[in-house]
Protein 1
Amino acid sequence: MTNSATLHLPGQEPLEIPIIRGSENERALDISLLRAKSGYITLDPGFVNTGACSSSITYLDGEKGILRYRGYPIEELAQKSTFVEVAYLLIHGNLPDQYQLTEFSKKLSNHSMIHEDMKHFYDGFSSTAHPMVSLSTMVASLSAYYSEATGRASVKDLHINSARIMAKVRTIAAFSYKKSIGQPFVYPLDSLPYCANFLNMMFSVPAQPYEIDEDHVKAMDLLLILHADHEQNCSTSTVRVVGSSQANVYASVASGILALWGPLHGGANQQVLDMLLQIYENGGDVDGFVMRAKNPNDSFRLMGFGHRVYKNYDPRAKIIKEHCDRILSKLGVQDPLLEIAKKLEERALLDSYFVERNLYPNIDFYSGIIYRAIGLPSNMFTVMFALGRIPGWIAQWKEMHEDSQTRIARPRQIYIGENARTYIPINQR
Ligand code: ACO
């Protein structure tokens, strides 16, 4: 097996570039010494072809539509595991035994309350503020309460800080929702498992008894598993970049939440629902929206379609679609938006524009329909994505800090501005 490639640059001796191979035979050229040896850098806007780290957390093959967490196929985890177990797997590297799982779950219960002072933060937000704003702000603010998380020290204390983030993010998210609808905050209950605890904080009110629907719990658990990690996407790379400066884990995760919010990334799940509603209100005009998405002079894109790495059906979207009908019928919900989504997908997948560009539904295409059936408003969809992604961000942050090759993230650039010029005093310009 060849271990290097030879690079011929104009006017220079041939340069040997080491070839790196991953455990699934992924190949990379190690160009870390390229500039030192040749004076050249590589230019790759959007990091389309750039590996930023080696990782043993998540494997994905976008051509074949494969996704595995720590070696376990996503299909199997979705069918057999729970979100808390998957979180443990991602953070610690292996599935927990019963004792480990119980202890991990206990930690998530014990840390679910937020400092009472933090409740006042909500008074500073208008009730119309997007819940991603309060989520990111308040996760960053946790550093003010847990100062031992500062800098490198936060790696040592990660077991406790990761439990705090995972546990408290639920409470913060549910309180944001309660604030937005003017209802009193409902405190977490240690006796309830992870998802049930969240749903109770979201939907129970002091004035009436609330019964947690097990089907809602299962649907949420499934969606959180599917969102738990996705290797070096925009938000995870943000968490790593911010963490590489030795910013604490709360600051790093808060940055990830903000990166996730963008409509081209996790924010797409809310946009998909808005798009489906628009189509519904336009009398189900699926063809008109497909035409708009294809028009190069129209900035409109089919939200929930396309992916940087999947050039095949996103395996997470496949699982969600398979569960959509079952979950909705179990919940007794008939949602016309599901039919519109299916029609839109069918129409797009027959169209040469989408076929030639390998554009398939991604994770955001069908997830909102399930969240809607559970009773979540669309502005909470990206918050739900963030809740699911927290263990992935923590695992990636931990792995980065434990990797002796980690250096502060600092890309280079090709400067295309003015050459050196002389300063002209203002009265002479
Ligand atoms: N609708 C219409 N055309 C599309 C779409 C879409 N959803 N997605 C990509 N295209 C077209 C582009 O216009 C481009 O066409 P061209 O070659 O004629 O210029 C081609 O497909 C390639 O698209 P790029 O934007 O270059 O692909 P990139 O990898 O940079 O972007 C992205 C990926 C951002 C996901 C893109 O597909 C998109 O905007 N999708 C809609 C938003 C979305 O659903 N985001 C969620 C992604 S999943 C996640 O982050 C959790």
Protein 2
Amino acid sequence: MSQATTVGGQYAVIEKPPVRSFALAPHMTDYEAMCQGFQWANMAKELRLPRANGVNQATICIDDHPPEVMTRAALLWHGADNSKETYTFNDLKRETNKFANVLTDLGIQKGDRVFTFLERVPEHYIALFGGLKTGAVMGPLFSAFGPEAIKDRLEDSDAKVVVTSVALKDRLDSIRQELPNLERVIVLDRGQTGYEPEAHEVLYHQAMATASEDYTVVQTDPDDYSIMHYTSGTTGKPKGAAHRHYAVVAQYATAKYILDFHPETDIYWCTADPGWVTGTSYGMFGPWSQGVTSLVYEGGFSADNWYKLMQDYKVTVWYTAPTAIRMLMKAGDEVVTNYDLSSLRHLLSVGEPLNPEAVVWGQQVFGKVFHDTWWQTETGAMHICNYPCMDVKPGSMGKPFPGVTAAVLDDEGKVLPPGEEGYLVLKPEAPSIFRTYWNKDDLYQSRFKDGWYFTGDKARVDEDGYFWFIGRADDVINTAGHLVGPFEVESALVEHPAVAEAAVIGKPDPERMEIIKAFVSLKVGFEASEALKDEIKQFVRTRLAAHAYPRELDIIDSLPKTRSGKIMRRLLKARELGLPEGDTSTLED
Ligand code: PRX
């Protein structure tokens, strides 16, 4: 691979060597040629769909592999305390059968919503696939969520059962009375003894101990819902983007051609949590539909831990995020030299723009380029990407996956020529594209116009067909790869007794892409102070989530508003960043 060099402030194209020189031939050998002949239906055929019970992600990913795959390790689990567990596909088949029986005994039927609020432990994966076997619609929640965030999601989805842990359940308990449709709570007592369940609770290990290992997976059709992830928009509370079982066709195809799996030999590590779409589409469905061994690390980020893990497990394919890469860069190149990372073959990134420096850094320290991939909760699978066989333009998200049509439109909906910035849109062709926002079908329909799906992002395409991310077209904040809706944070802020009004913006940050900055005005009788600022920040942190609290908070006399009373976030942002204030004619006097 040639070195990336800077040419007139631009990063030079990183040319890929001929495919025949790769130690392992990539599945995609010629991007253009593959675009010509690609059909999603052929991917479904390759995946042998439909199977005897229709299309069920659990059957496809866990139960129905050839015998030599069933005995392969599916999940290599490394605990935060360095304990280790290995589950073969056979093990997962047995455990998920048992869990499906546990749910069935609790009355769960096809279409019911079952949520998981668990750490990155094997039982989280078992619960999700066990649920899919019953035909339930599964909703994984990020373990850092606070009570407010949990309540919004469980209330909106009408979840009947939640699977949580002894350590996390306090946060659920504090809002359970407000959720009349939540019937039962399964409590994971991993490593805990002596926990006495309450009347509505079922102990995970107790229930599993007596559950049968035999289970006939419920018949599911391609369009049956399988999983939902809540995602943030500009207005309102988070929305549940619901996906169908057939999404697995796209997850399988992209895992094969973009993650470029070679299932017999690969050890794959996706650093995302199952609470986010990357953690399910590519922490579960992509690799396991391919029969690939996947590493799950329960612990948090530390450069040494991460490198050691990759060394010890001989990770070959690594899918991570720009903020993590920037944190590794910050930790220094010397740390890398303490580890043998020669097993790494393919590096990829998702969630935020991958800055060209990070792409080049990968090449310098690992001898491998980071391949950026662009997609969203709504798309369910990777859509615009860099491929092992394709030259990389550092800073570009790459080109649409074969079978995906992407374009950049102007305000009138006309396709813009190369070089011009506009709205990034997709033809909703991929099997993984979301099928609704739960209970908000009007909002779902509003994302489609003239046959295009509007992603909410702005982009441009260059003369060679490479796409470049410009920014969000809305006020949604991307902090370290997590989307946060300003409305959610503002709602939490105004619940603090001292806060009269609140507005929240994304403030550019070199490491996290953006941080959340809040502006609040106080109710009469409250005095601004550093202590009060800290108290308000912590208030949001405990109610919502650690990643969703304002790292910066200013107390101001009043917030700029339009004459109709709408808070002008854009004006606050312009003032904060010293940018032109733009049109302020609607500003209240
Ligand atoms: O704005 C884009 C940004 O993250 C959004 C999707 O976030 P979410 O639904 O949480 O899914 C994240 C993981 C799939 C996009 O609309 N985004 C994601 N990947 C990239 C990106 N921005 C720039 N470059 C990327 N590669």
